[in-house]
Structure prediction request, 858 residues.
Amino acid sequence: MSEASTTKAPNPLLRFVSSPAGRAFLALLLVGLVGTIFNADGAFFKIGTHRDALRQASVYGILACGCTLVIITAGIDLAVGSVLALVAVCCSKMAIHWGWSGWLVVPACLLVGCATGGLAGVVTARLRVQPFIATLALMVLARGAAKYASGGMKVSTAVKNASGGYDYVDVPTLFRLVDTRILGGHLSVVTVIFLVCLGLAWLALARHSWGRHLYAIGGNEEAARLSGVSVVWAKILAYVASGLLAAVAGICQAAQEQQGDPEAGVGYELIAIAMVVIGGTSLMGGRGGMGLTLLGVLTIGYLDKILSINAVPEAGRLMLTGIIIVTAVLTQQRKRT
Amino acid sequence: MTAAPPVSTERVPLVRLTGITKRFGPVTVLHEVQLEVAAGEVHVLAGENGAGKSTLMKILAGIHTDFEGRIEYAGREARPRSPLEASALGVAVIHQELSLIGAMSVADNIFLGRMPTRNGFVCDARQHEEARHWVRQLGLELDVRRPVEQFPIAVQQLIEIAKALSQNARVLVMDEPTSALNAPEVETLFGLIRSLKERGCGIVYITHKMEEIERIADRITVLRDGEWIGTAPAQELPTAKFMQWMVGRDLGEQFPRRAPQPGAERLRLERFSVFPDGFAVRPMAKNISLEVRAGEILGIGGLQGSGASQLLLGLFGAYGNRARGRVWLDGKETHFTLPRTAINAGLVLLTNDRKATGLVLPLSIIANATLAGLRALTRAGWRNPTAERAAAERTTGRVKLRAASLELEVGALSGGNQQKVAIAKWLQTQPGVLLLDEPTRGIDVGAKREIYQLMDEWTAQGMAIILITSEMSELITLSDRIVVLHRGELTASFTRAQATPEAILAAAMGHATPSTPSQLS
Prediction:
């Protein structure tokens, strides 16, 4: 274990750098450095750029919080992108078409997220289907449900009327509230939502016995069980939490797009997982945390922003992101051996 | 070791190992061991758990390549550097856990890695034909195209032997081959062994069963604590002398256990059976009745496959409801189907493999030491890191853990310190009955003594302990009473005064007790 060798190193800086948090921090610093060099004629130094970078990363970030909980148990949740779409469709349907109040829409949407997460949790933890397969199935299922609920079309403010034409309804208050800025326009509300989710998830993971149980399950499930941990319940709750956070992300997505797109969120689960992994949370379970995930979210979020302000075409952005993910995981592995 | 005698007029053995010494780090597991296998003999390799039998066989099979000493194959010295080289030298090992690939066909398994090919493509017809030939050699008639997993374990074992023969193996090592077989299957295997002998093969046979040794051994070699004790023809080795070879005379350093003062009965089992693999198959522990009193250490003796570990796991609720029988804890009848309920009732189990089932290695000492008793340290589920640290300091202090920081990952600790963390975890739950399965496995002498000391203190405080240990000296010096299991059944029980190593070992090998003929099943 490198733990033993690093304790001998007297240099605290070196120790920090070799820790997962240190490496994730270095990666973020590196991205920041790239941003200051390739600043696109000073665009990188404008506050609006940072606000947008954070806003664009927020929906992914909310998903990443849920994925962190699941990945710590040595599981995986591939369904979050589809659940996001399902909730976005449901949310738009309720808020736009049916004109429900936000006080009703939000709990209903969260319930949908919890239900899908609960389904994934029961199938993996109770019926012992591999998390990859179970959530892959749920990913397809939720996508289908989203298309069914929306009738295969975007649920937008253009509502079909009886005579075959379209009526245009107002954007619901809920959507306007979520898709706005505070602090003099310097901070997006979705970013605040992300940070609140992150904070709550951090509390659960780092300060609640459930969080400790998640680590124990991911580190050694059998030892956890023989130590009296309710492995099945703890795991089901992890997937429920992931579904719940996917629902929050779905509401944010619907609000930002002012519509419920059944095709939304395709591939989001992979970006969220990449954020978690770049942060340094181990896919093998038992190691990681919400602080690391924040670093991962910022790293990928800023990387994407820097590439886009420099007008790097999407093809190049995708390829570069792929290379970064592999590099990050490789440095993680080197630490283990 | 003096120079090996020159190859004389005597028959050259198939394989001869001399002066074999093997170290793992600072620990010497084999010291100057010798073994010789002649054509047409069954050479039983005997010794208690941890005597070095498996290590010696792994050297012979080319798995361990870093050792001192000399191996001669048919008179020529060679050092196999891989299992492949060893099999080219004519050695095949039939492991306890079969090395067949269940989903592949019998023929594919027999020719795995060396299938007959033409232009790079597997020649199925030829492979099937040859596989059929080797299987027939064993008097077996089966469809070699069917997947291996469709055959019973006994047949799979024979397939493995067919694979060995097809590689022209002259020396076959069988490591407890009958542990998964029923009585008629054992007869088939023994018949096969006889025919292998006639064909000039030499067989190294590892077993813990006295009955088997008496039936098939031509020669016997005994190892003890990594030392070669002796080799003798089977007829010239009476049971008494064999037992003496196995256990030795000195029991090492005696631990001064204070005189126990047994109090009230804490735990009682009546006709308790454990079925880890379901009720359809033979129970791992069958109709066990025993009791432990406060302040008492009950030792359970037994060799590999005795079922002692499964008995404790079943009692602890680790197998859910796959246990039958009656249990009383402190006079109240209970039955645990979840570890958590057992823990809450004050019954805890230190498992025999701290890395696999005892500890969460990537977590800190504090997290591990408070894992089982975390609820008592939380309020409405919210953790209190200060209280956790204090609790971990208290319990790790009681087991005299030495660590630079309690934040260290448990995986970074030495074996002895890891074991202390595992024990500290249970102390925090304040148990009344402590089930200890191999509490001193793989830890150094100093830490061992400290754990003995702790067990002595706990019993003085009124705890009851059930101890499983494969170290005879530990069993005899620590236990106030001893029961012995053989193949899941209780074969003997001793008071401290009655217990002798020879008697315990005989009972553990299923010998010298008028046990019922329960081989049918």
